[in-house]
Automatic annotation (TrEMBL):
PANTHER family: AMINOPEPTIDASE, XAA-PRO AMINOPEPTIDASE P-RELATED. Keywords: Aminopeptidase, Hydrolase, Metal-binding, Metalloprotease, Protease. The lineage of its organism: Bacteria, Pseudomonadati, Verrucomicrobiota, Opitutia, Opitutia incertae sedis. It comes from Candidatus Spyradosoma merdigallinarum. InterPro entries: Creatinase/aminopeptidase-like, Pept_M24, Peptidase_M24B, Peptidase_M24B_aminopep-P_CS. SUPFAM superfamilies: Creatinase/aminopeptidase. It comes from the Bacteria. GO terms for molecular function: aminopeptidase activity; metal ion binding; metallopeptidase activity. This is Aminopeptidase P family protein. It holds the Pfam family Peptidase_M24. GO terms for biological process: proteolysis. Belongs to the peptidase M24B family. Residues 147-373 form the Peptidase M24 domain.
Length: 390
């Protein structure tokens, strides 16, 4: 994994940074330290060096993996400080490090613990909150990171294969329900099968996943529940994180067991055309918002209106895509609430996921992950789009 580098030459101009978090809960900390563990620890810069204070339980691995210049035993440092200040804890230790390493001020991320921020302020430690994203260089992925994202998408593809296998093996009973292995097929059964398939590829669906049929699929982020009927569109959105690296994949396919209605067929075909069109538009130099706006116009010209009906959003009411990496949703964003008007840059990674949602017809979303290249984009995910399974 590529980590942030701080050189003595650049430190004169760059702001020193301070993080206190668990890498398992903070993608910034995981990226900065190239390390994974469950407990929070200190990582900061001072005088051109990267310094960490971590528990003795993790210190050997951290020294091997992080590439930090100075690695301190958090417990030993705190015990020494308590010889003169018996009530000292994390805030006092940070203040002590500020004096030791002659740090005049630190910049912290927006999710820095509020209580710790206040206590450090009371101790006279100068802090400022950094912009978001905290490490803007994270939006440009290295080839090593691209391969890790590909692995996340391979895990997602294993989930789609599991869904397709179940739907092919299923039959439609007299009541119009999909029946698999003698039982009515449910969204819960599909999600369990997806989970198992992803695990076999090293992926964990830590953020959950979606297997939603019928009007549940028209509810965009509804995870899906209960029996699945024949001739319903089934939205399957799978975004596993590879346990070994922390990087996500993110893909969506839409299925139907039985025979699609003309309205459903047109809906799916229109979404696929929007997907293909957006893929052709993505390239370095184009604004993400322009790709999104083109998709909005395409759906409108195809006769699909976006609005609110009986209190529920319908049509194409979400963004076209988002960044993927150590977070399943990260910068940049292609439209929606967070509009990116700046040009896309080479080696940014984004999803392309147009969708249409109408209660009574159902929902359809098709999603792939691409890396932005100079003259176009390259797929980091690959799986067939066959959706109607008899």
């Amino acid at each position: 994994m590529t980590t942030a580098k701080v050189s003595p030459k650049k430190t004169k101009k760059a702001k020193d940074i301070l993080l206190f978090a668990s890498p398992n809960n903070s993608s910034d900390m995981r990226w900065f330290t190239n390390f994974s563990c469950g407990d929070a620890f200190l990582a900061f810069t001072a005088r051109g060096k990267k310094i960490a204070a971590i528990t003795l339980l993790e210190i050997v691995r951290f020294r091997q993996q992080s590439g930090f210049d100075v690695v301190l035993d958090f417990g030993a440092e705190l015990a020494k400080l308590r010889e003169t200040n018996p009530s000292a804890n994390t805030p006092e230790l940070i203040a002590h490090f500020a004096k030791r390493y002659k740090v005049s001020s630190w910049t912290v991320p927006a999710d820095f613990p509020a209580g710790l921020f206040v206590k450090l302020h009371q101790l006279g430690v100068k802090l400022s909150v950094g912009s978001s994203p905290f490490f803007p260089q994270r939006v440009i992925k290295t080839e090593e990171e691209l391969e890790k994202i590909r692995a996340g998408n391979r895990a997602a593809c294993a989930g789609f294969k599991a869904v397709e296998k179940i739907l092919k093996e299923s039959v439609i009973d007299k009541k119009g329900f999909v029946n698999w292995q003698g039982k009515t097929l449910t969204s819960e059964t599909l999600r369990a099968a997806i989970d198992h398939a992803c695990l076999d590829e090293g992926g964990i669906n830590v953020e959950g996943l979606i297997a939603a049929a019928g009007d549940q699929g028209a509810d965009c982020h509804c995870s899906g529940f209960g029996p699945i009927r024949a001739n319903q569109l089934i939205v399957c959105d799978i975004f596993p994180r590879i346990a070994a690296t922390g990087y996500f994949g993110d893909m969506t396919r839409t299925y139907l067991k039985g025979k699609a209605s003309p309205e459903q067929r047109k809906l799916v075909e229109t979404v696929k055309k929007a997907h293909d069109k957006a893929m052709l538009n993505v390239r370095a130099g184009i604004a993400g918002y322009d790709v999104y706006k083109s998709t909005v116009e395409f759906f409108a010209n195809a006769g699909y209106k976006t609005g609110v009906v009986d209190g529920a959003p319908t049509g194409f009411f979400h963004g076209l895509g988002h960044g993927v990496g150590l977070d399943v949703h990260e910068a940049p964003n292609l439209g929606g609430r967070s509009v990116m008007t700046d040009p896309l840059r080479e080696n940014m990674v984004v999803t392309i996921e147009p969708g249409l949602y109408y209660p009574g017809i159902g929902g359809c979303r098709i999603e792939d992950v691409v890396v932005v290249r100079k003259d176009g984009c390259e797929l980091l995910s690959k799986h067939p789009y066959k959706w109607e399974i008899a």
